[in-house]
Amino acid sequence: MYTNSLAFAQQCDREDALAHFRNKFLHPSDQHGKQLIYLCGNSLGLQPSATASYIEKELKDWAKYGVEGHTDASHPWLPYHEFLAKNMAEIVGAKQSEVVIMNTLTTNLHLMMVSFYQPTKTKYKIVIESDAFPSDKYAMESQLKFHGVDPKEGLILWKPREGEDLCRYEDLEKIMEDHGNKIALLMIGSTNYYSGQHFPLKKITDLGHSYDCTVGFDLAHGAGNIAPDLHNTGADFAVWCTYKYLNSGPGSLGGCFVHERHENNEKLNRFAGWWGHNKDTRFNMRQDFDPLPGAEGWQLSNPPILSMAAIRASLDTFAEAGFKNLRAKSEKLTGFLEYLLDELNNNQIHIITPRNKKERGAQLSIQVKSADKNLHKKLTEAGVISDWREPDVIRVAPAPLYNNYEDVYEFVQRLKALL
Ligand SMILES: *Cc1c(COP(=O)(O)O)cnc(C)c1O
Q: Rounded distance, CA 406 to CA 14, Å?
């Protein structure tokens, strides 16, 4: 299927129906103006060239209308989050009413825990995967402490086996068999940020629910990358950020999913704010809290419109390309990267990420045995933007919107020269 040559890479680029999207992004260059190979979309996605004009429009409407922009701006600020929900819902496979853009990822994780982690004296433990992103682990530990549980006792880690890199589903089943009656919540970061392993979300949800646990996912590395099909997984909640694969700018707002079966669930605790209140009476001010049905009801504050404008710019690009098309290209592009790394035939190199393309997204985590951070430094000097994780892992994620086959080919050539 693949051939190890520059000509082949260029041929793939010529045949790629999505190739022109590359020019809709601003690509970083070195100090001599030479374009860098950017493979860090899993960390911070590149800026769409349209973003500036989307933000500028809001600045102009603010200048022109002042407070009246809430209703009179060309995209009125009052319902602004509603302009994002449809496209975002499509990307994560949810219904529009199940999705809201608000706050940031870790904040949303805490808000979701308020609603979906309601420990009792006997059922209070939380399961996460062992290499969870640090912020998620801190959030879980602090929630446990907040409820008076010692994290050492309350947190169960789903770990790869000795000598292995990936988590096995059967080991999660075993955890549930052994401790299921004490577990209140499964919170799994799919896709795992370190290994690139994408977990079977539906199986995990069914497993958790069969033990009467709530199930939530952190899709920071999934949203805009894999197709998580959130509604059909049946998960209770999910959270993600928009600055990685979703190209919405540093520190931009997060996304949040609440399954529709909870849309009017009054038994759930929640921390409330006025933006989650009934839109018809929100400005009457002297009302009892009357939550909006669905995910919108979890909003706290009126949101930062400038960040939301950047999200809208990005989501419009995704909608134009079509997420299914992007995913198809992504599998092929990452497959090419995998093929070229295998072709190096170098036993210093070990790909941690699953070989099965259904169990991964764009990212490959490449372990370079006996290498140290110096390799990453040299790669950077050679014009490649990638990501280094101690002790010896390079993470690269060709993004189907703006990376091409030639990027992937060139990256492997430069890596080879340094090994
Ligand atoms: C990127 C990332 C975060 C970052 O959290 P913020 O609240 O957006 O700073 C958290 N968790 C995971 C799994 C991530 O990949």
A: 11
